[in-house]
Amino acid sequence: MTRTRSLASGLLTLSAAAVLALASAGGAAAAPAPSDGKPTPSVASVTVDAGGSADYWTPERMQSAVPGDTLAGKALERGNRSSALLVEKGKPATTKGTKGKPTIAKSENPVSHIGKVFFTMGTTNYVCSGNAVSSDNGSTVATAGHCVNESGAYATNFVFVPAYENGNAPYGKWAAKALYAPSQWVSNGDMTYDTGFAVVNPDAKGHLLTDVVGGSGVAFNEARGLTYTSYGYPAASPFNGETLYSCTGTASADPNNPQFGTQGIPCDMTGGSSGGPWFIGIGSDGVQNSINSYGYNRNPVMYGPYWGSVIESTYAHAAAS
């Protein structure tokens, strides 16, 4: 059933198979420096076969794709636990008396450079969100690291569908020819670096992505505690993934896992919004400075990685390719 363009009702429900419930935390370390003390951050990448990717994504496959937040959960379980950290796969949050309450996330009209990301990991089809960013190659999309690579394995059938709404793809499906992520993400699934970039092929007429849909500027090593507006296509209940939503708020550190160096803003977008852009300020016209990465059950906050020198280097490699 197609969702109406009004504020959704219901309590925060981060993706049933994806978002993480933290029982207790310990062994927290200081937040990393922007460059993590490494003069030359390491970047991992792969060239992918784009042939057939657009045709692969039929309306039926797009509709049945699994929210990519499940992959963020796998990363946390794989490489981010300490002896005192207990992580379990989340379940939809339910509390008596919440029926009829509006969500924090606000329904938005489509934005030309923001869209949905579809990809295959192993034998499973997934969906995330993404954003076209300015670049030398005019073909770079920012998304979450877990929407590009999981446990060292890269996505296949990766396409970006800008301005998606209710099954419509007004600018077509843009197939990736290369995927980039910080080595720290690819090797360890470190949530500190949960950002990835895809370089897409030109369209059938030879046009570059940002020449068609536009692209956001990017910023790195910015001050913490800024006001952000995040965007995404939440697919888990109470949303259905068919329309764009946004959240606006002032960022603050993750008190549960300060070692990640991430920041969060009030937001109850669910699975499927992973990889959606964070813009500095209010609205979609600002520069991008993070992405939707993860959240905790029964806690209406969306966390995103700090875009320091490691992620800057990853972007630079992708944008110049």
Automatic annotation (TrEMBL):
Signal peptide residue numbers: 1-30
MF annotations from Gene Ontology: hydrolase activity
Keyword field: Hydrolase, Signal
UniProt KW Hydrolase keyword: yes
Enzyme Commission identifier(s): 3.4.21.-
SUPFAM superfamilies for the chain: Trypsin-like serine proteases
Name of the protein in question: Trypsin-like serine peptidase
Taxonomic lineage from the root: Bacteria, Bacillati, Actinomycetota, Actinomycetes, Micrococcales
